[in-house]
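Internal QA ticket QA-208
Title: Verify multi-chain structure generation after dependency bump
Assignee: T.L.

Test input:
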Amino acid sequence: MVTLLRTLRGYLFTVVGIAVGVAGLVALGAMSERIVRFIEGGDRFVLGQISAAGRGMGMGAGFTAGGLLPAATLRAIAAVPGVDGVQAQVMLPLNPTTSQFMTLTQELLLGMDLSVPSPNRAYRTLPVRTGRFLREGDRRVAVVGASFAASHDVDVGKRLTLEGESYEVVGLLERMLTAPDRFVIVSIVDAREQWVAKDNMLRTLLASGAAALTAADLNTGAAVGWREGEDPDAVALRIRERVPAVNVQIPSELSRLLRSSTAFFAALTSGIAALGLLIGGLSLANTVAAAVFERIRDFGVKRALGAGDLQLGREVLGEALGVTLSGGLVGIAIALLIGFGIDAWASRTGQQLFFFSGRLLGGALAFSILLGAASAAYATLRVVRLSPAEAIRRGG
Amino acid sequence: MLRAEGIVKTYRGSATPVPVLSGVDVSAEAGALTVIAGASGSGKSTLLNVLGLLEDADAGTVWYGDVPVSTLSRRDKSRYRGRSVGFVFQAFLLLPSLTAVDNVLLAGRYVGRARTDGRRRALMLLEQFGVAQRAAHYPRELSGGEQQRVAFCRALFNDPPLLLADEPTGNLDDVNGALILQALRERAQAGGAVVVVTHRPDVIAGADAVYALEHGRLRRR
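Actual output:
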């Protein structure tokens, strides 16, 4: 142990050099992981349910964008063979003046019909960090996503004003690193009132009595489940065939669409990861190899004292492993420090830029150890090829 | 004890090959202090490196007793160096990351010497050479004379029958130089074969055998 500590002290600058490389690798990787989580979260969601909306264009946003989806249509969807559960939803932009195209980061109001269990197989419930989720019969209460809570400084027990109405926040969702982080979730009855308050045309239409609409008809969409053993794409196609005036998303098609629309982010992610590996890897390999070459005279002396190739190789490899492990751990600590520091600052606007997953940290450590060992092995092979006298001369 | 025949060595690193040793024959007997003298750049250190198997000659053979050690495998050469040869270098060549006592102990590491027994012997040698109180110090904390004495302890640690010293007093003042010279003589008197490369007259004067290296050729004085 004492020898190891002495060795590490001798390698202080090497450890720092490796730590910088690994910190860069881990920080870039954590940014990449953050983007991956966002894309994967959306993908999981769309593959977990069939999303339906009324035909046409309307106020709805996100997965329920489209025209009205009246109660009669919901009943027709529920009657399609293979369907298991239809949950009416109202999804609206919280601030209609913001761009409708910015759905990836848009703050949304989601009204859920809580008399029906969530049909989404990937999200049967949304994870609550503090407080509770909505219950059937709740009015004027809201559950909010982590990013929304951070950027609007709301917490359980605080109040929220939406279209002039006051809502009590009863629950805060766990950070999911995907869309629900920016949701305000209320009962569907409250969401319908919000819709009418936001939409002047709808208000005028209802007041004129020209349309035979009841409150139950005010839905922007629905989450549709399928029976066990059914193919969700086939069920979605069946709904499209049998129920008129409805926009039905085929789960696999929507997943493909989502992936193609996030292709830029996926490419960015790969680029960041590749850059991290390249920069971090080169820095680490160079530092370890340089550290071995710097001690070439010591190796010459050891060989003069009788050290064989294997003995020397084992020594160098052991030291390199100790040094890269230490550098790797310090690098991870630096990256965590930087990441959490930046995220603490960014959280004021509801952002999270880094996600330090276990696979990232473990992978970075394993990568640094393997690359360190490989670099040390390469450098050692070069060194042991020299005669002891040559090694001493070169290190002089 | 040690014999070299027909040693030829040419350095080919630069554009023009530099011949250093051109058929050198030399021998060193047990119980004798053998000196190889010559001007700077005459190839003395190269010859000592070849005798200690620190580098290979282009031609010729080094014998240790009846064994042509220069033809051994790399592994066996390492073993031979560890067990049979002690080296003393002009630049001391102590490892900067190790204390004085650990530098001495390093010589035992590669020949499988037990660590507890080794530590006792290392401290005894340091005591014998008057640097025991510096055992826990790092080389950077020692004077040149102290470093050379520690290096001498390292060379003697495995009690090698052959001691090769390259300008061992070159970086020392007169007092420390005389101390090291005395230790070399005592080693020879104790039965060891000692080969010293030097150009110092006082070392040459106390030698049992003196060779002069000139233009790649060695002649006995």
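Spot checks passed. The two ends of chain A are 30 Å apart (CA to CA).
Status: verified.
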